[in-house]
Design brief:
By secondary structure, the protein is mostly beta strands. The chain has two domains: 1-70, no CATH class; 72-138, Golgi alpha-mannosidase II (Immunoglobulin-like). Helices cover 7% and strands 35% of the residues. The protein is built from one helix and ten strands, in the order E-E-E-H-E-E-E-E-E-E-E. The chain has one helix spanning 62-70, and strands at 22-27, 39-46, 49-54, 86-90, 96-100, 106-109, 114-116, 121-123, 126-129, 134-137. Strands 1-2-3 form a three-stranded antiparallel beta sheet, with no helix packed on it. A three-stranded antiparallel beta sheet has the order 4-5-10, with no helix packed on it. Strand 4 (86-90) and strand 5 (96-100) form a beta hairpin.
Length: 138
Amino acid sequence: MTGTSPVGLGGYCEFLGLGPEAEVIATFKTDQSILDGRPAATRRKLGRGNVVKLAFWPGDDSFLSLVRQMMPDGSAFLSTPLPAGVLAVPHMDNSMFIVNTTGKEMAIVLSKAASDRFFDTQMSGRTRLKPFQVVWLE
């Protein structure tokens, strides 16, 4: 990640202990000496995946930026963050599974045209998901 994310002692933060299996991917840069230079985020490779631990909860959309950098290219389907209650799971074949877990219609915005593998329908742009609808985009 590049740039900064607002955080401080007034919000949630944690001191991260660091074992040899983890690497520091971000450090705190602050005038608060107790945090300055300490690990703000670590990554550990585990099997074919990665585990990221944050020592804070960002006050902006930095977390979303971090997740987008780590996702497979399937993340290119979404041009905006998903609304609360809608989940997306990227697959290694660059497809994406999207689930509306709410009982109401929810809007998502796709950055490119896609086909739903379940129903062989085309979707693009602003798309409405019915309550509890599941799509598998490719």
